[in-house]
Structures are given as C-alpha cells and as structure tokens.
C-alpha cells in the first residue's frame, strides 16, 4: 500500500504529460473494457473467497474443529460479501469450535481477526491490482468509503465503480476535434452594402 501511495503521489505531483496523439476510444471498446474490469472483480473476489475456504479447512483440521469440509463452503460463500462476510464466517466457525473447547474457540476467533486484516489490506488489494488494474491504496480506500456510505451494497459495488471511473471517455477526442474545427472555421463575409458608382 505504501508503494502504491508513493506511485500515486508521484503521478499527481509530476509534470503534466503531453497531449496523447492516440485515436479516441470508441463506445464499443469502452464497454468491453468495463466488462473486463467487472469480470476481473468477480474473478478476484472468487479467488479470495477460495483462499478463505481452504484456510478454514486447514485450520479446522489442525486444531480439531469438527466438520472441516462442511465449514469451508459457507465461509467461502460469506467471504464474497465485503467487510462483514469474513467476520460472520469467523463467528460461525468459532461457535462450532466451542464444541471442542473454549480455548480452541478463542484461538479460532483470533485467527479469523488476523485473516481479516490479511485479506483486507494485503491479499485483496494485490489481487484487485492484477484483475481490475486498481492500485492497492485505491482498492482499500474505495471499499472503506463505499461501506461507510451505503453499507454492504456500497462496499460490494465500490471497486467496479472505481474501475469504471478510470476508463477513458469514449469519443472524447472526436468531440474535441469537432469543437476545434468549429472555432477555427472562418466567419462568412458580410455584404458591406456599398454601391460602386462610375
């Protein structure tokens, strides 16, 4: 995240790049880019949920929590929900761990708190940086802001919205070219109304 913040500040405070001579992005290309970003978000979210499910099974086997295979599925599904999903999954597994002992339940709760920080601030930002092309700092910031404004729904749509905002404006260059041509077009000459007499 620190490296991502440094790159972001460098881009903001650095010299203004020259105007690009690349052709404008068409509406169809922009739509395809948007679909790619949304698809990347879905794949990234599925990957982090898979990691949560596998981690749950491994922890349950290590400490002796019963039904490890049946616990990983609800944890993986709940992990698809940003912010609160992994917390709910951790509570469920901790309650099941009470059947073993209180110490195992407490250790399970602590492990899920640790995993929550690992996923939110290390794993998910890195995955989204590859699948959605968002910097790690932007991933964490947009998720926090979306969750604060709209709760779970806001946290769920924050990253796709942020990815869509980064897309180039389709047809922007063409509109600008038309505007420049219209401003440089010579004005029509008006008849002065003078009468030439011999």
Structural features, described:
The chain has 198 residues and is mainly alpha-helical. It contains seven helices and no strands. The protein has helices spanning 2-13, 27-63, 68-79, 85-97, 102-131, 136-165, 172-184. Helix 2 runs antiparallel to helix 5 and helix 3 packs antiparallel against helix 4 (85-97). The chain is elongated, with a radius of gyration of 27 Å. 25% of the residues are buried. Residues 1-21, 173-184 and 194-198 have low confidence and may be disordered.
What brief labels describe this structure?
single chain, 198 residues, mainly alpha, 7 helices, 74% helix, elongated, disordered N terminus, disordered C terminus
Summarize the SSE layout with pairings.
Layout: H1 2-13, H2 27-63, H3 68-79, H4 85-97, H5 102-131, H6 136-165, H7 172-184
Helix pairs in contact: 2-3, 2-5, 2-6, 3-4, 4-5, 5-6
Average residue pLDDT: 75
Fraction in beta strands:
under 5%
Assign an overall shape: elongated
Helicity range: over 70%
**Secondary-structure element series:** HHHHHHH
Q: What structural category arises from helix and sheet content?
A: mainly alpha
Number of strands: 0
Please work out how many helical segments DSSP would assign: 7
Largest sheet: none
Output the radius of gyration.
27 Å
